[in-house]
Design brief:
Elements (H helix, E strand, L loop, with lengths): L19 E8 L3 H18 L2 E8 L6 H11 L3 E6 L5 H11 L4 E4 L10 H10 L4 E6 L7 H14 L11 E8 H9 L7 H8 L3 E6 L13 H15 L2 H31 L6 H34 L6 E6 L8
Parallel strand pairs: 1-2, 1-4, 2-3, 5-7
Antiparallel strand pairs: 3-8, 4-6, 5-6
The chain binds uridine-5'-diphosphate (UDP) and magnesium ion (MG).
The site of uridine-5'-diphosphate (UDP) has 16 residues, from β1 and α3.
């Protein structure tokens, strides 16, 4: 799976040896990391592409990122700075970057240097061999707490239930995509941008590539446990109706069992007469069924909240400023 030999034989026009590449870098308070990443990335892109652009999407940074980027874009052609009006979340920032990108190939990469640039040439080789999306998959989750790991495996378990679209577990946003894939992603109208799911939904030929994430050198992760839970609920409600169907099934089962028990009680009453014992049964049953009811209502609520978000039709993000140089239009 991780051999460097391209496994796909492509039929159709050959893909360029040195394509036009767009890099989308979402950044929230990554001043120090951007200072290191941008020159390194530019140097690599010089070697592997005929023309390139690095789109830094500032997702409402409150550090010195705006000042840095304002001066950086003037002295570094090819770097484009898109500043959002506030923090809209990584998924919205990525969507913003994808929308303005125009390369034949688009690479999404975090600003924090956790995604090794050394993987990019290999990703490109696979693209040239005909793979439309090459996505990086963490080799292991040893760097994460057990709670995060158990949570992740439960999350992917639920997402994978009876899905037509298989969302690959542990695939992150570090990926290389053909222009066709990006165009398809941009056309998706939904507000809740659960990108991992959307990447899978659009289809095309995708292949994983294992990697070991680097340590974060500057700043800190922006995703705490609560945010991860919210993210998981978004993902599940956006891509699976399994929880709703499960409650339907559980409800039917309980109704059937209750009917049997009720019939037994009626027959018992007719044969043995009135019996006032059974307080424990009543109370336990009441708690149990109230619990199930509330859980089912809560699950429905999560889906309704999603519908609410979608019908408002608000834009995904608001751009405050865009400066720098975009990739020139393709001559061909
Ligand atoms: N990020 C962003 N908006 C956010 C949160 C994060 O643009 O609301 C960016 C962040 O600057 C980084 C990338 O998304 O470049 C990944 O974030 P982080 O490193 O915090 O996530 P982790 O690697 O811990 O999953
Ligand atoms: Mg990170």
């Amino acid at each position: 799976m991780i051999s460097s030999v391209p496994p796909t034989i492509r039929h159709g026009p050959p893909r360029s040896e040195r394509p036009r590449i767009s890099c989308v870098v979402p950044a929230l308070n990554e001043h120090d990391s951007l200072l290191l990443l941008l020159p390194e990335l530019a140097e690599l892109l010089d070697q592997i592409s005929s023309a390139w652009e690095i789109i830094v999407v500032d997702d409402g940074s409150t550090d010195r990122t705006p000042q840095l980027m304002t001066t950086y874009v003037t002295s570094n052609p090819g770097v484009y700075y898109l500043q959002l009006s506030r923090n809209f979340g990584k998924e919205a920032a990525l969507s913003a970057g994808l929308e303005v990108s125009s390369g034949d190939v688009v690479i999404c990469i975090d600003a924090d240097l956790q995604h090794p640039l050394a993987l990019i040439p290999d990703m490109l080789v696979r693209w040239q061999a005909g793979v439309d999306t090459v996505y990086a998959v963490k080799r292991n989750r040893d760097d994460e707490s057990w709670l995060k790991r158990v949570g992740a495996s439960m999350f992917y378990g639920i997402l994978g239930q009876g899905q037509r679209v298989r969302i690959p577990p542990d695939a992150g946003d570090f990926r290389l995509m053909d222009k066709q894939v990006v165009d398809a992603l941009i056309r998706l109208p939904e507000r809740t941008r659960f990108m991992k799911g959307l990447y899978a939904w659009v289809g095309f030929k995708a292949e994983p590539m294992l990697y070991v994430p680097a340590e974060r050198l500057h700043g800190h992760s922006h995703f705490n446990l609560l945010q991860l839970i919210r993210f998981a609920v978004d993902g599940i409600t956006a891509f699976s109706t399994w929880p709703l169907r499960t409650f339907n099934l559980v409800g039917s089962l309980i109704a059937m069992l209750s009917f049997c028990y009720g019939s037994y009680l009626v027959i018992d009453y007719l044969i043995n007469g009135h019996d006032i014992s059974g307080w424990t049964t009543i109370v336990t049953g009441m708690f149990f069924f109230s619990g199930i009811n509330l859980m089912a209502l809560g699950t429905m609520g999560a889906y309704i909240a999603r519908i609410f978000d979608e019908v408002k039709q608000r834009p995904l993000y608001v751009v405050k400023r865009n400066i720098g140089q975009k990739l020139p239009e393709n001559e061909s």
